[in-house]
Structure formats: C-alpha cells, structure tokens
Amino acid sequence: MxxxxxxxxxxxxxxxxxxALYELDLFTLGELADTIRREKxxxxxxxxxxxxxxxxxxxxxxxxxxxxSASRKNPNQYTMSHDEILDIAKNAIDNGxxxxxxxxxxxxxxxxxxxMGAFRKIKEHFPTIHIKSMTAxxxxxxxxxxxxxxxxxxxxxIDSGVDSMPGGGAEIFxxxxxxxxxKGKVTSYQWLExxxxxxxxxxxxxxxxxxxxxxxxxxxxxxxLRLRDLxxxxxxxxxxxxxxxxxxxxxxxxxxxxxxxxILKTYAISRILLDNIPxxxxxxxxxxxxxxxxxxxxxADDLDGTIQKESIQSAAGANSSNGMKLDEFVSMIxxxxxxxxxxxxxxxxxxxYS
Length: 354
Ligand code: V47
Fold this sequence. Notes:
The protein is α/β, with parallel strands linked by helices. It has one domain: TIM Barrel, CATH 3.20.20. Helix content is 44%, strand content 13%. The termini are far apart. The relative contact order is 0.16. Bound molecules: ligand V47. Ligand V47 binds at residues 65-67, 103, 135, 166-169, 171, 206, 208, 210, 241, 243, 245-246, 250, 283, 286, 304, 312-313, 316.
C-alpha cells in the first residue's frame, strides 16, 4: 500500500513514513490533512477569548531560544504581586475573557505559595474562570526547587484552582537536541510523565513542539510520535500546537529558518500522524496570522484565541504583544472561508458565527 493509500485508509504511520511525508508536495499533503480535518470538524475553526498572563520573567533556568526571561539580553526583571495578577485577571474577565493562560518563568525567589496563591486568589474572586496554567517545566521546577514530588505539585495545582495545563516546555523531545537547547530543564521523559499523571487525575492538557531552529525533520516526527504514544494511554491531550521558533533577542544560533511551505507541511503532517489528538492549533502568535489562516486548509482547526497580551513570543520578535480584537479575528476567519466558533478551554462550543 502506498503512503497516500495508507493515509486514505486511516492506517497509522511509522517514524520513517512520517519523515517521508515531508517529501510529498505541499498541496497533496494539504489535501490529505484537510480531508481529515473536515471529517472531524467540517468548516469550523475554533478559538477562545483568552488572556495570556506572564507573571514573572525571573528564571532559574537557561533556555537558549528564550528571549523572555531576564538575562544579559533582557535586563528588565519583573515579578507581579498577587494583587497585580488579580487586577489583570479582573480586567480581562470584564473584557470577556473565558480563559486565563498563565505561564511564568522559573522564579526561585518567592516560594511555591507565590504560584499557588495567585490561582486561589483569582478563583476566590472569579470562581468560574478557566485557569490554564503551569507547564510541565514549571511543575518540574517546583519539584527541583522545593523538594516536592510531581504528585504533590499536581495536587496542589488542583486544590488551588488550576483547571488545565498548557502545552509549554515540550520544546523538542530528542535528548541530544534538548540538551543543547535547554540543559537542566524538565527532561522529555519527565515532561511526558507529568502530563500522564495530570491526565490520570481526570484533567486535560495541551502539547507543544518548538520547531524551526536546530532540529531535524526526523526530530519533529519523533516528537509527534512520542505524544501519540502517550495519548494512546491517557487520551488527555486536547490540542497539539507546533510553535514556530522566533529568532530575536536570544542565545540560539540558527542559520536556516523554515519557509512558509515547511511550516504548513508541519501542520499537515501533525494532523495526519496524530490520529488520536483532536485539535491541531495554528498559534498565530508564532506562525503570523496570515499563515495561521492558511493553515486552516492544511489540517489546523484551531487558532488559539484573542490572547490580549503576550510576552514570551513577542520578546523574541513575534507580532503578538497586543492580541487581536474579537470582531477582527472573527471576520478574518470568515474571510478565509471558515466558520468561526468561539469555544471554551475544553472545546465546548459557546458561539457559532455563521
Ligand atoms: O514552551 C519560548 C515557547 C512556550 C520561544 O497550551 C518560544 O494552548 C517561539 O506553551 N520562539 C510557552 N516560541 C508558550 C506555550 C503555549 C503557547 C500557546 C498555546 C499554548 C496552549 C501553549 O513558548 C515555551 C517555548 O517552547 N517559546 N521562546 C521563541 N523564541
């Protein structure tokens, strides 16, 4: 059976076959991915009204690709108090946000309570807001810094009001590349173990992959297949998010950047290989909004959200610091030929803009 026939017959692909997908021409690949996307979601494209909050840039770890954490290249340290975080949350919720996506650097100065207290404070005031927070890298950092085991950190998160985990910190699972990118941070095995434990608590999460830097195509396929393997066991991942590497203000030396075609192929291949993760998210903050809109024809069914404010990718050059206005976002998706659907964080449909 040829590769294309295997895909049409919904057969699972191997590492080698995943790598071979990159050799197909873009439009063949796009059509294959689009067919799968349409079988699952028709013409719908999902997004939510969310607010990204990045409460501190003080970090105990060093990732070469990161432009956000305070360092020689970014000497302006900040750490928000719980009241400051609450104020931002209040403002966001007043403006319609249904989800707070909270990601911090690895702050060694203020204790576990600085992390957990913020969640509790938000939930005391806004019990129904969805808090998506604590990447597996942050969970692992609290374990390393304060001697808590993963179960203890995850249980504290649930007790404090975290509803789901974002997909950050996955980077690239290949151990050699990972060691070069972010030695000392959560390992691939640990990242997967933390998400497994989270899913075993009946909770859901996302998974990212940072690509377009020093990794190979084979590394990307390996990353995607490790996620597919875990999803077979737990079923807890909602979305896979290929994050396009942003190149400014960091310490990673990259010579070859991916073309638009390579990025679209990566979305399409993710859709084809991940037969068990429902949503493929084109996170416009890293792909640009233009490519994210096109990615809807290459397997992506989700564009993240309005974001409102974002600090991690914009520090590295992305044009995402001010988010997107709801009506503008909706009309862009419509003009691209898709039906925008506002969803909550767990993909329940809230409003269809037909
Ligand atoms: O893990 C850091 C990435 C991630 C750069 O779960 C960079 O819905 C590009 O996890 N270029 C954090 N990316 C963001 C994240 C996320 C984003 C959107 C949606 C969701 C979700 C999760 O940001 C980190 C890291 O891989 N990052 N530096 C950079 N220069």
